[in-house]
Amino acid sequence: MRRRPTMKDIARRAGVSESAVSFALNDRPGVSAATRARVRRVADQLGWQPSTAARALSGEGAATVGLVLARPARTLGVESFFLQLVSGVQEALAARRLGLLFQVVEDVDAECAVHRRWWAEHRVDGLLVVDPREDDPRPALLAELGLPAVIIGAPGARPVPAGTPVSRLWADDAGAMASVVDHLHGLGHRRVVHIAGLPGLAHTRRRIDSLRTEAGRRHLTDVTSLPTDYSDAQGAEATRRVLASARPPTAIVYDNDVMAVAGLAVAAERGVSVPGDLSIVAWDDSVLCRTTHPPLTALTRDTAAFGRQAATHLTALLDGAPATDLRAALPRLTPRASTGPARGATPAAR
Amino acid sequence: MRRRPTMKDIARRAGVSESAVSFALNDRPGVSAATRARVRRVADQLGWQPSTAARALSGEGAATVGLVLARPARTLGVESFFLQLVSGVQEALAARRLGLLFQVVEDVDAECAVHRRWWAEHRVDGLLVVDPREDDPRPALLAELGLPAVIIGAPGARPVPAGTPVSRLWADDAGAMASVVDHLHGLGHRRVVHIAGLPGLAHTRRRIDSLRTEAGRRHLTDVTSLPTDYSDAQGAEATRRVLASARPPTAIVYDNDVMAVAGLAVAAERGVSVPGDLSIVAWDDSVLCRTTHPPLTALTRDTAAFGRQAATHLTALLDGAPATDLRAALPRLTPRASTGPARGATPAAR
DNA sequence: TGACCGCACTCAAGCGCTTCAGTGGGAGGC
DNA sequence: GCCTCCCACTGAAGCGCTTGAGTGCGGTCA
For residue B192, what are the β-bridge partners? Predict the structure, then answer.
């Protein structure tokens, strides 16, 4: 059990005052090059690192950003999305020696409570916010607390009050949905079901709306969206229901990889051939989509890069950059064997 | 942007000194019941929360525990294991208002550097350590730093130096492996391949060893373990190799769910019927195992409970409890359709 | 009635760092 | 040769909290 070295130790060994040490180590003017070098050497030698607690207390911020995941435990731990996102976030934060404070809670209210607590406890300098909702209390809260933040997957319905350091990273769901509809329409599909995610989330609404828009543009009137909770159970359930209906769809679009795989299993169990009788598209690519049989056509996006972009922008906000809306790269459709020509259709000209 | 209320504010409003406030809010003797109540009321009213920075600085600890994941990014974000674990950890920590500082790095050396830095920066009071290795530098480091920790999945080869506040939470891989071998042997399998995880990890070694022991006990001499990096790619690769060998196994045990699914896909692609020609067992159950076709026989364990147990014990260590070795619940085998009688074998008496 | 005690509370120092107001001395200007 | 200015550095306060050493006061006991 070693004692942690402090600036006082460095000051003593280098024969200067504490303030000189502070100046030297923080690249501030006021010390000669020689002294600076000497202080640095001693600090290295002692293995000194600034105490974040002390830094935070003297107004420098906590060197930490927070991320809260508000999802019931049961829908957690399956999707590749979050760990990928976090791993990208880390990369950007580690470069700035920022820590990531992480918490999983049950719902948005609990998330707000955590944000409030972190703020009051002086724990974080900024926040990454995921899963924006249609009726989202968080932007207002962030504005009240004045905490810099990046909302990932925004814009939601609720705009961010002006003048607050809150940026939004926007995934182009409409564009992505257009590419999916293009693909399916080109293969001759006319009856499409969209098995969507949690109904309260902003991107669920956006996907549902753009499906309707894109379908209308191509004169497909027979499209439906069914919300779920993203779990394999509900994905399977919904699939079973639509396949048993009077006029089952010839293609299904799933809002995540897990449900798509579950849907594929349901098709297999009912003797529905994929892609012969039914085409399947998954939103978000992952190992899952590649290892099923047949492998699934999926919307591929670089989730880690997404996280990196969000975190990088957050560090810019912390440095005082103005808040903006930014746009993530458009996901691209990776066609695999789970989509094919609609039964009995002559493929439209591409 | 509100100013955070401090104890000074409370003191002023309640008409007492700051120390009285501190005593009142920390349930220490030295204030009358009336004053205590008044102070509490004012604190609530102001929405006061203690500044962790200030607390940490005055010797109270950072109210945070750390968790570092040392895995290359490519093997991340697929397994259900970690998010589940973390969600369990959170539950136990949230009850004590402890934060979780989380970081993903590339390898153990980087992990050690992070531990050192967190210690020097005063950021964490304790650590959760995962993926113990055969030749693990971390126990010695923890001892040097004197940081309380729980090593999850231990014991590794390297014991923890005595007198350090480091406990080990032990998963009974031998017992689990015994149940797997039992199951397969009972179905008449005599040639079994084990597609294992990262070779450096302690539990990989333990599983390999116990497979050998259990096989020996039942006079199966034809067992092999092949290490991989846990990725679907290597899982598929290894499967391809063993299926193409002169005497392919009749059963394969995979060290995680992802590789098992990948292996199943390889079997399908080569026209090997499961479970007709090949039985498959996955170590760690998840949605994946339930949604494949056929669903996979898997070793089910309550990963969230595992995390909860680890975190709960860590809080005990922080409270000064002595370090011990504890044992997690034995995983149980969930038989599904991916395992069946070995081709041409008369099942042994069960 | 005075010595003593314990209770309820205040004071001030200190945790490790930043920062602002000095301070001393050497260089430069006239 | 003296005044000024600037550079390199020091001193001390302060961030919000804990804590051990006081302080004053009402009550008990001889």
Answer: B223, B251
